[in-house]
Design brief:
The chain is 26% helix and 28% strand. It starts with 21 loop residues before the first strand and ends in a 9-residue tail after the last helix. The chain is of the alpha+beta class. The protein has one domain: Electron Transport, Fmn-binding Protein, Chain A (Pnp Oxidase, Chain A, Roll), CATH 2.30.110. The radius of gyration is 21 Å and the shape is globular. It comes from Stereocaulon virgatum. This is Flavin-nucleotide-binding protein.
Length: 267
């Protein structure tokens, strides 16, 4: 029997609103993180005069340097790509002993749910939040491994189809932040509208208003050649990426629209 590992439920990561949509299993949470092209990373500055948390859009992915064969159902770290002098890297460097407390958030919208009344409209979505401590990756082998991991998370196979590994100046200007995850949670909505009885029993409403789900998904367009490269033909690793992303995203959005179980109004 396949095992299912979960993040521990504590006050910080427990979902209260629509708790039936909550997920704490690693497979679900990690897959949402990896499926989201841009993660939003938040942290607090050490400057006591600045009361506002900082939120940054960053590229990142889940992985385990210690156990490279680990799958999404296994414990993993979150690797984030950044510039050496960016604020978050400076903060992490100044808190090297314990690591910088970080929250990583990811959201995928899979459909627009149209109900009988605006108050019952919703989205089909997948969201995930991770809580952990970020530290700079100093080990050269792990840094190159993480850079390849992040590059291939954007377009699989891209690292080996470029001039790689990076040279000295590129390595010096790039920093990898490794977030040791403490816990996390996910939240998923699928299905159609969840209309209230006061609306479904009104003939003047149900006879006039269209209800249902408009599937919504990211798609990858046709590659457009540019830059200094002289290769005319689009390589297979790019066309496969395009086809796989488009097929996977459209199929999920349509399946989510027809699903039963977690439908309801609001989020």
């Amino acid at each position: 029997m396949a095992r299912t590992l979960v993040y521990p439920k504590v006050d910080k990561n427990t979902v209260h609103r629509k708790s039936d949509r909550a997920s704490y299993d690693l497979q679900t949470i990690h897959s949402i993180i990896n499926a989201t092209p841009v993660l939003h990373v938040s942290f607090n500055c050490s400057d006591l005069e600045d009361p506002f948390p900082t939120v940054l859009p960053m590229i990142g992915t889940m992985g385990s340097f210690e156990h490279p064969s680990a799958d999404l159902n296994d414990p993993m770290d979150c690797y984030l790509h950044g510039y050496v002098s960016s604020g978050i890297m400076k903060q992490a460097r100044s808190r090297a002993e314990k690591g910088l407390p970080i929250t990583v958030a990811a959201t995928k919208v899979d459909g627009i749910v149209l109900s009988l009344t605006p108050n019952s409209h919703s989205y089909n979505y997948r969201s995930a939040v991770l809580f952990g401590y970020g530290s700079l990756v100093e080990n050269l082998e792990e840094k190159i491994w993480a850079m390849k991991l992040i590059t291939d998370s954007v377009v699989p196979g891209r690292w080996d189809n470029t001039r790689s590994p990076p040279d000295g100046s590129e390595m010096a200007s790039t920093t990898i932040l490794k977030v040791k995850v403490v816990n996390g949670s996910g939240k998923v909505r699928t299905g159609g509208p969840g209309d209230e009885k006061k609306d479904t029993e009104r003939e003047d409403v149900v006879e006039r208003v269209w209800t249902g789900v408009v599937p919504l998904h990211e798609s990858v367009g046709e590659p457009v050649r540019g830059g200094a490269g002289r290769v005319e033909r689009v390589p297979e690793h790019i066309t496969s990426f395009r086809d796989n992303v488009n097929e996977t995203n459209e199929e999920y959005a349509r399946t989510a629209a027809a699903a039963k179980g977690s439908a309801g109004n609001a989020y």
